[in-house]
Amino acid sequence: MNKQSSLSSMKKKEELAAYAFLSPYLLATLVFTVGMLVFAFYISLHSWNMFQKPEFVGFKNYAKAFMSKDFRRGFLNISWYTLIVVFTQTFTAMFMAVILYKPIPGKLFFRTFFYAPSVTSSVVISMIFMWLFLKTGYINLLFENVAGVFGLEWHNIEWLNKPDGIFQLIARAFGGDIAYEKWYFHGPSITLLSVMLLAIFTTSPTFMIMFLAALVNIPPSLYESASIDGASRWKQFWKITLPMLGPITTLVVVLGTMGCIQMFDYVKLATAGGPLDTTLVPVYQIYTETLGINGPIRAGYGAAMAFILAVVIFALTYIQRKVIEEKTEQY
Question: How far is CA 301 from the centre of its chain?
């Protein structure tokens, strides 16, 4: 009995020591995560300018968000952004990983070179892209030189101040137009596409590293067997590489979607939601409404928009995982 009591006492001491080491993290999580979520939901049910006592309004802030044209437009903008960026960055990251996995000269140099944008400050990258996309910047200079080679004339574009949508430009090319009031038919604007390019440039290298790690874990014997059976490189990619990359592709798509929907820094630094709200996104709207950047402080309204956005992110993530995992579970 004494021995059992001694062991029981030691086990309890070990458990207490473990909880003691974990307590700072658990306390911080309880206060700054759970506590802040509860407080944010409480505020979302009130009208509050941060200086006066909150006034209970129920779910009026949520109803106001759903009825807001700006909030709906922000969701449309971020939907275009997410759709194009997630697809492009996933394809780009996989392509770079497959290329850099092969035994090519300077492989380590190119891996480091391609990964560099991901570890560079988003502020610095945004400023560089802003300079590149100026009307007198290098992007217009490049197109001007290319056009000159073919004897054509290039008119400089204000990339970060052009609200025309892709579908709008296509309609004009065929002699038509889409009225400004029908903004939901315009498609992503030229400015939003420029921001997309910036996002793809900075995020693809991170996912490239993840695909490289997954490629290393594919057994070489699978490729050897396929080669013996006469399968071409292209067929090996479709029948072996792509299916084996299924789980990491799921992760990349989910993480990419979550990151895109929460996009804030590029819009804040480069466009501030303009021109004509064509780059307005939900997180930037939450920021401006909560802090009163473009008007009165409406912290309750901003909190309500934040919870709506959280529900959307959760639902999309769940659907993506279900759909993609069902297609890859056989592997």
Answer: 24
Q: What share of the chain is helix, strand, coil (3-state, %, to 5)?
A: 75, 0, 25
pTM of the entire structure? 0.85
DSSP state of 219: -
Q: Name residue 46's beta-bridge partners.
A: 56
Comparing CA positions, the residue from 289, 306, 307 lying closest to residue 298 is 289
Residue 88: Cβ-neighbour burial (10 angstroms; 0-12, 13-18, 19+): middle
Task: Classify the phi-psi angles of 230: left when phi > 0, otherwise alpha if psi is within -120 to 50, otherwise beta.
Answer: left
Domain ranges of the chain: 2-44, 69-328
Q: Is 165 helix (H, G, I), strand (E, B) or coil?
A: strand
Residue 304: predicted pLDDT: 93
**186 pLDDT more than 60:** yes
Q: Which of 59, 28, 68 is nearest to 286 (CA)?
A: 68
Q: How far apart are CA 252 and CA 93, in angstroms?
A: 9
Residue 93: exposed, middle, or buried by beta-carbon count in 10 A (0-12, 13-18, 19+)?
buried
pLDDT in tens, 267-324: 888 888 888 888 999 999 999 998 888 888 899 999 999 999 988 888 887 887 777 6
Distance CA 99, CA 107 (A): 9
Cβ-count burial 174-189 (b if 16+ within 10 Å, e if not): eeeebeeeebeebbbb
* Structural domain 69-328, CATH architecture: Orthogonal Bundle (1.10)
Write out pLDDT tens, residues 257-268: 888 998 988 888
- What is the rounded CA–CA span in Å between residue 186 and residue 180? 8
